[in-house]
Design a protein that fits this description.
Blueprint: E1 6-14, E2 26-36, E3 42-53, E4 58-64, E5 72-73, E6 78-87, E7 91-102, E8 107-118
Antiparallel strand pairs: 1-2, 2-6, 3-4, 3-5, 3-7, 7-8
Length: 124
């Protein structure tokens, strides 16, 4: 069990102005705030996403850092970023993992809980 407590806050937004439902293009933004609630500095090195649309199609995305950065997050500090996803359906979900390392050199896998992407008022 890890001694590291990394909290995530996730907000999503449908970008109607960038979407084109007639062409099965639904654009969403998400803002994630990562808060380091441990006693050691951590650095976000990698990300891995599993993006699922309403048809059950899963897209895997992996890469270094987030939005071109590999932020250092001091104890008690937070790092926020906004990114986006394009789905072919008006509803979908995302989940994944951040790969981090502590200043002591301990690797950490921080799970990103499942969150929903949905056009407003599409779900009843």
């Amino acid at each position: 069990m890890s001694d590291y407590n990394i909290a995530l806050s996730i907000k999503t937004q449908y970008l109607e102005s960038q979407s084109d439902p007639d062409k099965e293009q639904f654009v969403f933004a998400y803002t994630i705030t990562i808060t380091n609630q441990s006693h050691d500095q951590v650095q976000l090195l990698t990300r891995e996403w599993h993006i699922t649309d309403a048809d059950g199609k899963v897209t895997h995305v992996t890469g270094e850092g987030v939005v071109g950065q590999q932020p250092l997050i001091a104890p008690g500090d937070s790092f926020s970023y906004t990114s986006g996803a394009v789905l072919k359906t008006p509803v979908g979900s995302m989940e994944g993992t951040y790969g981090m390392i502590s200043s002591a050199g301990n690797p950490l896998d921080v799970p990103i809980p499942l969150f929903r992407l949905a056009v407003p008022n599409i779900l009843h």
